[in-house]
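Sat 14:20. Reprocessing the chain from the morning session after the first attempt stalled halfway. Input below, unchanged.
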Amino acid sequence: MAEYFKLQLKITSRTLDDYGINPYAGILLLIAGFAGFSSYLFYKTEFAPYIYVFSALSLISRLNDTKRVDFLKTVFSFTHFLRVRIIENLIIAFPFILFLILRSFYIFSVGLLFLSFLMALTSFSTGYNITIPTPFSRHPFEFTVGFRNTFLIVIVAYILTVIAISVDNYNLGIFSFLLIFLTTYSYYFKSENEFFVWSFSMDAQGFLLQKIKTAILYSTILCLPVIIALSIYKIENSGLLLIFLLTGYAFLITIILAKYSAYPNEISFIHGILIALSVYFPPLLIIVIPIFFKQSVKRLYNYLI
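Finished this time. Tokens:
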């Protein structure tokens, strides 16, 4: 198990080298940037703890890719597999948890710790072949596969919504709403086989618009119970909820376009930086989305008519 983490460290180091970044300097810059961004975020907005947990879970969700998890299952015994998944999640969550503790947000730190464990557990099966029905079969495959891998997280989000209303904590309800959007973002982190793109009988623009429309529709279906509950709970905050909904759509579109602007490769480091900067300054999406769209059309030209 130790050898696995040593290998991951070497891969990360070589990736930084490929981008011309000294690994040690990169780590120092990452720590400094993380501390600076965290401090500014908590200074700037009261929603910082929710955004913070949201960001941590977004990073953790990238480890839940089905092929990656299946590979780990073949390499490790069940016990070691479970340990690796939990340790990986905790390594990512640790700096976020530490900063939350330093800021005295103990409930959020415990919640993030719990969700980190939960996301490790949701990626393995117990040996039973259970088919979970979904309302997403018309336009496979991201939501069909993604929902079946993350349905427990969606259930947790619904439970958090009920708790938020019962304890009169609207911010917790907003967090549960964001958690669902975070989950849908993870469905688009991996590129599909070229055959799935080629099978669409349309041009690149039509393909991208179809993907975007499907994502907005299906994400709305998942969010609808939370939207209805929060709207009934505090109708006067519907405007705020609408802003979060539109922002969620904007980032969902950005993730989809980022995926296909790098296709058939995975989302690159540069794409990740641009997305991170957009989280920090959302108006940047006005520039980022058209750039990603133009790149996506070029990337898909050879796969679509």
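The longest helix spans residues 204-233.
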